[in-house]
Amino acid sequence: MSNLLPNVVQLGWGGENGWWTSIVQTLYMTFWPAIFGGILGLIFGVALVITRPGGILANRFWFNICDKIVSIFRAIPFIILLAFIAPLTQLIVGTQIGTTAALVPLTIGCFGFYARQVQVALESVDHGKVEAAEAIGATNWDIIKDVYLKEARSELVRVSTVTLISLVGLTAMAGAIGAGGLGNTAISYGYDRFNNDVTLVATLLVLLFVLIIQVVGDILAKQLNHQDR
Asked: What is the DSSP string of 129-142?
């Protein structure tokens, strides 16, 4: 290994800049934004579907508000979003630099994308099932929970998988605020120092994360799809 990947070995496994530290930082920056951004995205995605014209709680005002919020944060490039919400990041976590500081822009960057994905997934539900639920006196919450979310659960897993993969990519750009992670290792200790072996290994580890997410997501989606049948 020392002859084949000398710079990888020199970087080490532990320590402040070691491989294990980078892996943990990437997982940390993926997990929490996925939770917080996922919750926000699900809420806004559901709101967009039920408040749209013809929805069970049709309300043009709230639909336009939710639609504009999602569109704005969906459209801002992530590297610009890092700088744009820096004061908010400072207010929430007390710093604008580091792994924890990256959680705020990662969450916001994730939520807009996921909200659109959720909206598309829920809109694919057969409207006839919604009308049937209304006809038997189901409450709005029952329709959201037992019709929209249940009928679209397989598709929701698929869009969640896509969002997680996108989020892993965003963690690489989070290195711009000193967030660390495999993306930062690939650039700072690989590309910038012409250590191609470091860049290669960091890239392969990111690809491994993406592959695991994709495989697990596909398995869950297929299982839920079979249960629906």
From this structure: HHHHHHHTT--HHH
pLDDT tens per residue across span 109-135: 999 999 999 999 999 999 899 999 989
Q: Is residue 201 part of a domain?
A: no
* pTM of the shown model: 0.89
Please report whether residue 198 resides in a domain. no
Residue carrying structure tokens 């710093």: 95
What range defines the domain where residue 136 resides?
23-180
pLDDT higher than 80, residue 175: no
Produce one character per residue of 197-207: b if its CB has 16 or more CB atoms within 10 Å, e if not: bbbebbbebbe
How far are the Cα atoms of 7, 8, 226 from residue 3, in angstroms, in the given order? 9, 10, 50
Q: How many domains does one find in the chain? A: 1
Q: What is the DSSP letter of 176?
A: G
